[in-house]
Amino acid sequence: TRVSLPEDLLEDPEIFFDVVSLSTWQEVLSDSQREYLQQFLPRFPEDSFEQQNQLILALFSGENFRFGNPLHIAQKLFRDGHFNPEVVKYR
Question: Which parts of the sequence belong to the DEUBAD domain (predicted)?
Answer without folding.
Answer: 6-91
